[in-house]
Predict the structure of SDR family NAD(P)-dependent oxidoreductase.
Amino acid sequence: MTTSIVVGGSSGLGRAVAQRFADRGDTVIITSRTTAQADTVATEIGGTTRGMAVDLSRPETIAAALVDVREVDNLVISAIAQGVNSLAEFDIAEAIKAVTIKLVGYTETPASTPTTCSSTADSSSPDASGAPFHHDFRVPP
């Protein structure tokens, strides 16, 4: 059976991808910043979907959050902090949070998943051409 993790799978594009994986029969793990939100959406998606809390803005907690994940075939990272930060009203704290999520959190996540993490394009991918819709993460032992 295929196991897919969608980091940021509780809303937006991540939720749509998680639903697609669940509809094709994958075991799906979705993440949100809170367990309550992840569990609620996992129940709505159905199948063998479960939720877990992972906060990419706190990268030092990612490995511990993913410690019980034993196998990963597909890893999709769609989490993003939504916010507006303009030059006129620049918010340093929000800018640091966004950079932490996108640089450190996005890097720490595949480093914290099991070494079986891989992905290949196939006819069941959302793109009918078979093109993958996420990156292939292969974490060295």
The chain has one domain: 3-111. The radius of gyration is 15 Å. Strands lie at 3-7, 27-32, 48-53, 74-77.
